Automatic annotation (TrEMBL), chains A, B:
Residues 7-77 form the Transcription regulator PadR N-terminal domain. Residues 89-169 form the Transcription regulator PadR C-terminal domain. PANTHER family: NEGATIVE TRANSCRIPTION REGULATOR PADR, TRANSCRIPTIONAL REGULATOR YQJI. This is PadR family transcriptional regulator. InterPro entries: Tscrpt_reg_PadR_C (IPR018309), Tscrpt_reg_PadR_N (IPR005149), WH-like_DNA-bd_sf (IPR036388), WH_DNA-bd_sf (IPR036390).
Length: 172, 172
DNA sequence: AGTGTCATGTAAAAGGTTACATGATTGG
DNA sequence: CCAATCATGTAACCTTTTACATGACACT
């Protein structure tokens, strides 16, 4: 149930509409917590229903601007400090690695080569994202930069690992 | 729908019962694709129903040993070579980082310190797993070792990043 | 006048988690 | 004979994905 906390987190910075939040998810937050349009609107309605956020203003085209309520801030802080993060994540990229033995060695090698390329592209995309953002000193900037640094290091680590792995199976 | 491919992949090595597969998920595969008992049994029944696997033998206590069928092998190869892996994964650990600004600096710092410890523990667990496995030359060993190396590098990368990140916010 | 973007909502299906339920066999 | 382990199954619920559906406003 982290989507609700992702929304609370974004609303803790500034009020926003579902549409605004959707755009944020498509750019920055997509890398750590992808969410679809339908999911976001549904969850916002539910959050408003349970009083964690409120409709602060209504604009043209039915736009509803949500604002975080005190209860929402409390819930966000509770999640950040008390709820243990999940240890195990899913990675279908890694899952495939376990079963590369059913392929011919050249196919297995090709898969790892693809991962090298994927990691390079990912790294480059993050670099461009970093350059395109107008960083300032607010919270999302400070911690967004730290999260982005994680992404850069992650992609670099994966590229190096994939290069090493491709090398492991090439000689056979 | 990667669970079905995880099961096909394990059965491509050797026939196994739901219980056997559950044990494998609890140890080695848990790190890349956690699955529950109920999920595994349900999916096995479905896979047998669609003919991708067959019940090869029945043992004591209602044990059913499943064997992969040719159609299952074909599906597994198709997934490995043709289906594009998913780029974006979810990480509630990283998601929290974006919102650490709502906490006091010492609380944010404590969160990152916790991540350092978590990464060290994860690294140590994988090291022990590596030592406890009786590695041989079969496919799962070769590629399992490569996957495990990924895990070790990942935990090391995360530890270093968390140390760097904790350092970033300490001076404020 | 028409296109693109802004803007929201809902329904169905698939995937995943938690909990309940049951019973056979083995080893001490 | 008792406990641990082996062994399977199902139901309810929550989360996520995909698809459908609608319309207002701004700009050219």
């Amino acid at each position: 149930m982290s989507l609700r906390h992702a929304l609370l987190g974004l609303l803790s910075e500034r009020p926003a509409s579902g549409y605004d939040l959707l755009k944020t998810f498509e750019t920055s937050l997509a890398n750590v917590w992808p969410a679809t349009q339908s999911q976001i609107y549904t969850e916002l309605t539910r959050l408003a229903g349970s009083g964690l956020i409120t409709v602060a203003a209504e604009g043209p085209r039915g736009r509803k601007e949500y604002r975080i309520a005190d209860e929402g801030m409390a819930e966000l802080r509770h999640w950040l400090t008390e709820v243990a993060p999940q240890r195990n994540t899913r990675s279908d990229i890694l899952l495939r690695v376990f079963f590369l033995g059913v392929l011919r060695p050249d196919q297995a090698h090709a898969y790892l080569t693809e991962l090298i390329a994927m990691s390079e592209e990912g790294h480059e995309q993050l670099r461009q994202l970093h350059d395109s953002i107008d960083w300032d000193d607010d919270n999302l900037s400070v911690y967004g930069r730290i999260a982005l640094e994680y992404g850069l290091r992650f992609q670099a680590m994966r590229r190096e690992w994939a290069e090493w792995a491709a090398d492991q199976i090439k000689p056979r």
